[in-house]
């Protein structure tokens, strides 16, 4: 069952991760001007802020989760296919409308994570979250990589094939999943639109651990949003050319994959809080070291080290969300937390564009590293003190599931 989940989820994530690269290459090939692709990417991202919590809320409450997941994934596959066919050919307004539809259904790719506790035994859940984190990292490598490969051999106008094919393959695997309904049926009370959208945000704000986790990782990802630009500039500074920036990102993604796979073996709920601060500090230290690397091979090693720290950090984030969230809000918490990180990353990317010319590569990587250190300090400060009431209840629930002495 876990294999089918990971297969379907990874294929859908390969599609989602490769969509941005495929879109830029497609528009460039068809129009000779890739600038309009930036507007299309924004149109895909903005609906996520609202649609993510709504999809999470629906998955938390539906008695037939597989049917809903298949319907949403089917909508995503159709929408991404229409987007890749129309980008660079149809009027921009029409393309933006299609992109907005993609953004409305794409959160199902992340919402699948919240279904793990329904079919994975408690004693295997830690390993499952490590593998789930590695799924995102595999997609981060394979999605853009496959799109670039198709562009190299068949031309940029055909790169959409990768995202569409991956989405369709993932859709074909989803019916093999046997997803049970929520273990505790949610209360069938009338819920307003505002409560549906903000329900996950209220949990993130009132729970001490989740509040600390959300604030600290948002700061970290605000900094990381500029890493792609910094990597390109760093490649130029060390004499390897701007194309070396892509290599640095690939080594970072590879390190993240290895770190996530390793965390599937040793990371436990008891260790996850320490993994957050260790991951942020290790991530920041590795990024700061990029400012003094003498050559490209050393930059490869340091970027891989940064990824090794980030992989367990992401796995710990997923684990803490599951541990601290009420069972009937886990989907909302995951999608809302993901939306906040995406928003923070977008803000960091925008700030990097403003400051890149003034700070240069070294200044940018030191600034990005500083945000990781700030995130670690905020985690320790906000998490300090006695456990929150929700933390105590989650500990009790975990103890009742795992038995005495294993909580």
Any overview of this molecule?
It is a single chain. With 407 residues, the chain is an all-alpha fold. It is 80% helix and 0% strand. The protein has 17 helices and no strands. The chain has helices at 2-31, 36-45, 48-61, 65-86, 92-105, 108-111, 116-119, 125-154, 160-173, 193-206, 208-224, 227-237, 244-266, 269-289, 296-324, 330-383, 389-402. It is globular and about 60 Å long. The protein starts with a helix and ends in a 5-residue tail after the last helix. 52% of the residues are buried. The model is unreliable at 386-407 (pLDDT under 50).
String of helices and strands: HHHHHHHHHHHHHHHHH
What is the rounded distance between the termini?
Answer: 25 Å
Mean pLDDT: 81
- Helix and strand content put the structural class at mainly alpha
- Fraction in beta strands: under 5%
Helix percentage: over 70%
Unreliable runs: 386-407
Approximate shape: globular
Main β sheet profile: none
Task: Write down the Rg.
Answer: 21 Å
- Number of distinct beta strands: 0
Number of helices: 17
């Amino acid at each position: 069952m876990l294999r089918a989940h990971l297969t379907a989820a990874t294929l859908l994530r390969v599609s989602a991760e490769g969509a941005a690269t495929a879109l830029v290459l497609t528009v460039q090939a068809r129009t000779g001007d890739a600038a309009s692709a930036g507007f299309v990417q924004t149109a895909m991202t903005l609906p996520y802020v609202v649609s993510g919590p709504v999809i999470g809320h629906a998955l938390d409450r539906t008695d037939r989760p597989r049917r809903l997941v298949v319907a949403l994934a089917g909508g995503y596959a159709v929408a991404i296919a229409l987007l890749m066919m129309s980008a660079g050919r149809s009027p921009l307004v029409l393309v933006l409308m299609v992109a907005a539809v993609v953004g409305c259904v794409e959160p199902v790719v992340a919402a699948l994570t919240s279904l793990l506790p329904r079919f994975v035994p408690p004693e295997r859940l830690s390993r499952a979250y490590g593998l789930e984190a590695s799924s995102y990292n595999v997609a981060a490598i394979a999605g853009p990589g496959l799109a670039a490969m198709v562009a190299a051999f068949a031309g940029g106008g055909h790169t959409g094939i990768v995202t569409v094919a991956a989405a369709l393959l993932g859709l074909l695997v989803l019916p093999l999943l046997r997803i049970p309904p929520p273990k505790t049926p949610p209360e069938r009370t009338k819920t307003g639109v505002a409560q549906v959208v903000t329900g996950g945000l209220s949990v993130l704000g009132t729970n001490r651990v989740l509040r600390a986790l959300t604030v600290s990782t948002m700061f970290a990802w605000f900094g990381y949003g500029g890493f792609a630009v910094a990597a390109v500039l760093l490649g130029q500074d060390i004499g390897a050319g701007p194309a070396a920036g892509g290599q640095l990102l690939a080594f970072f993604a590879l390190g993240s994959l290895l770190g996530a796979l390793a965390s599937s073996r040793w990371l436990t709920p008891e260790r996850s809080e320490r993994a957050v601060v260790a991951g942020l500090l290790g991530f920041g230290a590795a990024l700061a070291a990029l400012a003094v690397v003498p050559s490209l091979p050393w930059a490869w090693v340091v970027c891989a080290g940064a990824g090794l720290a980030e992989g367990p950090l992401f796995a710990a984030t997923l684990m803490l969300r599951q541990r601290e969230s009420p069972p009937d809000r886990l989907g909302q918490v995951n999608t809302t937390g993901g939306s906040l990180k995406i928003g923070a990353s977008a803000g960091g990317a925008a700030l990097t564009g403003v400051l890149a010319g003034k700070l240069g590569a070294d200044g940018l990587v030191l600034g990005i590293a500083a945000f990781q250190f700030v995130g670690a300090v905020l985690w320790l400060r906000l998490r300090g003190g006695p456990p929150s009431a929700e933390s105590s209840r989650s500990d009790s629930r975990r103890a009742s599931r795992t038995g005495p002495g294993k909580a």
